[in-house]
Write a structure and sequence with these properties.
Distance between the termini: 32 Å
Number of helices: 2
Strand content: under 5%
Structural class: mainly alpha
Number of strands: 0
Largest sheet: none
Number of domains: 1
Radius of gyration: 21 Å
Order of helices and strands: HH
């Protein structure tokens, strides 16, 4: 849980707490851009059926790729912070001896 005092102290990182909310926000934005692309492609089909079909496939593929890449980016950030926590635990374990 994120507390106000965590914003002013450097003992705890706040990014792992925020990254999940940010991830869901990005997912919603990608989905909305995908829907916008689909409607644009359907509008283009009235002028050029083949061009509209290609744009529809590109919008769907772009949405899928965007969703996957946003998940990879979020997991990468969380992994970096988890590595930092594990290295800190190893360092603290070495100090006990």
């Amino acid at each position: 849980m994120l507390h106000l005092q965590d914003l002013f102290q450097w003992d705890r990182f706040i990014t792992p707490s925020i990254i999940k909310s940010f991830y869901w926000l990005v997912m919603v934005l990608i989905f909305l851009f995908g829907i916008s692309g689909v409607f644009s492609a359907l509008t283009l089909m009235a002028v050029s059926p083949f061009g509209g079909f290609v744009a529809l496939l590109a919008a769907l593929a772009g949405t899928l790729v965007g969703l996957i890449l946003s998940r990879i980016a979020a997991e990468f950030i969380l992994i970096v912070f988890r590595i930092n926590e594990h290295l800190g635990a190893i360092r603290d374990q070495g100090r006990m001896r």
